[in-house]
Fold each of these.
Amino acid sequence: MIKLSRRDFVAAAAAGLAAPLLMSGPARAATAAKVVVIGGGFGGASIARYLRRNSPDLSVTLVERDKQFTTCPFSNGVIGGLWSIADVTFTYDGIAAAGVTVVHDTATTIDADKKTVALAGGTVLDYDYLVVSPGIQFVWDSIEGYSAEAAEIMPHAWQAGPQTTLLRNQLEAMDDGGLVVIGVPAVPFRCPPGPYERATLIANYLTQSKPKSKIMILDANESFAKQPLFEEAWKNLYPGMVEWIPGSQSGIVMSVDTSTMTVSTSFDDYQPAVANIIPAQRAGQIAIDAGLDAGQGFCAINPATFESTVHKGIYVLGDATIAGAMPKSGFSANNQAKACGAAILADIAGTEFTPAKLINVCYSFAKADYAFEVVDVFEVAGDTINLVFDDNRFTPEGASDEVHQSEAKYAHSWYENITAEMFG
Amino acid sequence: MRIALIALIFMAPLSLGALPASAQETSPGGQLAQACTSCHGLQGRSLGAVPSLAGRPAADLVALLKTFRDAPNEATIMNRITRGYTDDEIAALAAYFSAMSPTP
Ligand SMILES: Cc1cc2nc3c(=O)[nH]c(=O)nc-3n(C[C@H](O)[C@H](O)[C@H](O)COP(=O)(O)OP(=O)(O)OC[C@H]3O[C@@H](n4cnc5c(N)ncnc54)[C@H](O)[C@@H]3O)c2cc1C
């Protein structure tokens, strides 16, 4: 890239050369690095804007299938009736305004040798650096009888959008006294506390509107994220409404039958009024097709730069990665994006990159003015990412109403700030 | 006319270039701070209840962060987060946020 000193600028301006220089002359355009980002969610939106903020000459193209992005964070609040789907839906206008070329299409093929990405619409993009942040896809056959079609009757609502609205509508249509089943897959899945926050916010809605109803969590796991804090909220706020059944007590959802609304575990069959079935997950298909997961379902990365351990020049972010102690959260994806962005800019500049500590904060709501959180601080350790400390990371049990109220306010502020960072 | 042109040209490149190196997001302090801004807002300018950090005196921020870490007196998330940071990291974070403008 041709660098102009301040004096050159003044001289050029004085010579009347202002216009061509401002319009990034051909020499500049030809030498600027090209970054392509696949996926405009938490990882992809964050890195696209980070790169443009810190390197205004960089060519950044974001490939995103959808015209709008509905965030999974805060979507449990939509399901529980605290706020609307519009409140958690964003356009890509702010990203385009930041100088990112936004292409609404599906990336279908990555050629790691030729350094190209082919899109469903026929366009082929070439790149110097490729960032892949496609989120998760569902492993439908992890539950017998479950499929994309079955999810229209028994929604997963684990990718936010129409599925979120569907689950909300089913809860609204349900009679008082109905049974709501939430099926939880074995870890790893995106947002470890998500199913339990969902159960809690559904309980909040049902307590007010349909108090004879019950919620049953059929869980493939033996314990869960922030368990004591969720159990405290269930006991104090919604006594008797939420029942949690771990895998060892026949909690694993083995099959479903949408024609009879049956959800079956190894020993029991349930006929819920509303069935929220969350299947097992793996990295988005584009990452799998490119071989970035090396057959593991999720993608191994360099823990400092997030460069794939399979293909040089390709970086993977967010839910699609295996990132040591970092959970599959939007907060993690956003932090990873900024670390990866700094690593890419250092590589372009030919300078050394030293990783810094990263954070994840995960807020969960129990009702509109009651939230709690877990915080994680991470550091790179050898070939993985570790917690800096692993005790006392949670809101204390027995915290006062004031604490839970302020955590709810902080959760809203986090949401406003992180979505503003992503979408402008 | 010519003066106006020069002013125009100056504005774009200098708005980035005018910041000291330590105030860039890619500097060591700036890189560390990217973990904070997910809650505290880009460049430490927060939109909601989470306090803004931009432009606050570095000494105040250092004192505050060390109090959270070493002498916590109320239940807040910052007591927990600061346990992950060394004195040097706290100083780098404070230097970065104090160099940010409180207004965009
Ligand atoms: C109910 C629920 C609640 C949650 N709550 C929180 C929370 O409170 N806090 C938190 O931090 N996290 C939360 N999460 C987790 C968070 O949503 C994910 O961890 C985060 O979205 C991961 O970011 P990502 O970039 O990996 O994927 P995503 O954000 O899912 O983005 C992926 C994007 O890639 C696009 N895409 C995929 N493949 C292609 C392709 N081939 N071509 C073009 N585009 C493609 C998709 O359309 C999508 O827009 C929650 C999740 C759920 C399900």
Amino acid sequence: MSHALRADQFLLDADRTTWHDETLWFVREKRDRAVYAVPEFQALRELASQIKDHTLSRLDRYLQEFEAAAQANGVHVHWAADAAEHNAIILAIIRQQGATRIVKSKSMLTEECHLNPYLLQHGIEVVDTDLGERIIQFREEAPSHIVLPAIHLKKEDVGDTFHLHLGTEKGESDPQRLTEAARQHLRAKFLAGQVAISGVNFAVAETGGVVVCTNEGNADLGVNLAQVHIACMGIEKLIPRLTDLGVFTRLLARSATGQPVTTYTSHFTQPVAGKEMHVVIVDNGRTQQLGRPDFRASLKCIRCGACMNTCPVYRRSGGHSYDFTVPGPIGAILSPNIDMKKHASLPFASTLCGSCTDVCPVKIDIHTQLYKWRQVLGEANEIPASKKWSMKFMGRLLASARVYGLSGQFARKALRFLPHGLTHAASFNAWAVARELPEPPQQSFREWYQQQPKPVPQPPQPQVPA
Amino acid sequence: MKVALFVPCYIDQFYPQVGVATLQLLEKLGVPAYFPAQQTCCGQPLANSGCERDALPIYKHFVRTFQDYDYVVAPSGSCVYHVRKHFDKLEQTAEVQHVRGAAYDLIDFISTVLQVETLPGAFPHKVGLHLSCHGQRGLHQANESELTPVRDGQLRRLLASLDGIELTHLNRNDECCGFGGTFCVSEAGISARMGQDRVADHVRNGTQVLTGSDMSCLMHLEGIVRRAQLPMRVMHAAEILNGLTP
Ligand code: SF4
């Protein structure tokens, strides 16, 4: 199913669409205020962009440097080529501990690898400890946003879910009380957790440490209570030095939610005496993207979500309309790398307005990459055949002035004489579902121009094509 | 100065008055412009649909048509942006490079090349300015809210110089209208919703005349205004600056 069809389903509930759009626009405006308040913000973006470009250009070296430093700190480092390997490695570590109860803080990578269902299948209980993640875990839904995973739900929806799973009162929708119920529920899970899994926001090659940014402190609590910590990261999470980190922490929270910094910026460098720490480094298609010159910059992404919040399409179609772990503009340039056929409609789910590129804290040229994916998809015949053929026809039409002049006249005249009901029938004309067609004028500009008394200025002698 | 007028296909066919206003406005500013009759299109609709290869003959035709002029001026920033940014697919001959640099959006041409900042005339109406993304973010004709809270730009300044005009203060100064070329039919639902939301912002804040420098966005917004039968006029900025009344 295409993005447009899934978007149409979302749009059916006009009030909810308005609410979703306004909620995310509110976040975008908060981001704006935070950004305006930092005079050097644009310089920071440039710096972050350069650091990421540099790192990606020497990724092999930095990965090895990171591995050596982490091992020297007593951390076990694992390499996973794909999602299956990632999941198997994690299961093996859990089995080795004889553990069955896992707590997990937010990690888009484990979503991408479908770790939760895999562990459940193998008899392991895994509890998401981020509030938003826990809500959608109860509902067996995918996150609809990378920073705000349950942003598609209203507080009433959360109340219904908690009533079902946590026994809160029916109809309860007070955020304070709902959060308190989740807190009590999660506390028990934290205390029982044997292995804690976390994502990674930044991995520092120089120190071998990983950095996790949260607002709820759930990563720290999980890790500190459990016997084993497993941190999962994509290969692109690296930064060279600890001194580079400040550039990114200043950008990340401001871009994501308009906060100056996330409430918790937790550094995990070595295991506590008597405990274990593992880092799983995952490729899963990333080196393939790194090998595509036009698209490699997408790996600079620090997953702030700003491109989603600003995207006028995302705000009105919801994250699930993208049917990919990472929705929105960045998801639309990451997904065709994974499965071009399945995600062929995503690069077209954009007006190419460019707002995503302008908010991106690491200056990824998102809208240019959307345009370029369209060409790749066109060449690979992954666009609808009707579109392909009409474009071929137009190509020939518009390369010749004479043929073009005739067809335009025809269209305009037809529009004038056809009855409104025919030109505006929904199945006939997607334009006309919500819009009137322009009123065809008596004459075209070129007809008018021809009738003007010469001389309008003398033309230089244009070279007439052969 | 040899100036050619590029009138995009949909303006030629549906909004000839915008082409006329552009020509007359340039003449008033002392710049007679010539309209080469063999012109067709910039190729953007094809390229944005993923058919760049099929657009190459159109690009070449465009270059042949305009290579002998000092400037190519169009009342549509989107086409100009396409010529400047995406004609990189052609072999970069001297002619191609010249045409890419010579292509100007009308308002950009008036502000940057002619260095005109104010225009005579009056327009005593409340005017809502629609910033088109390709002109604003692509050609940098106006500030972007992603970067700065200051609402400034070429067309805003020119309009503000007219007597009696009042510019609408929008809640969202530069959100995309949802036209997006073929997007308007391939994602018709989202496109319409975006347009409706944009128009609602203007209604809420009292716009009487909705304007902008890119007729493609305005065609889409006008379609929505007319469907909802709103008491709002949609005019291209060239018409207003040329002294037309709503
Ligand atoms: S692409 Fe840029 S704006 Fe979007 S999530 Fe990644 S870092 Fe943030």
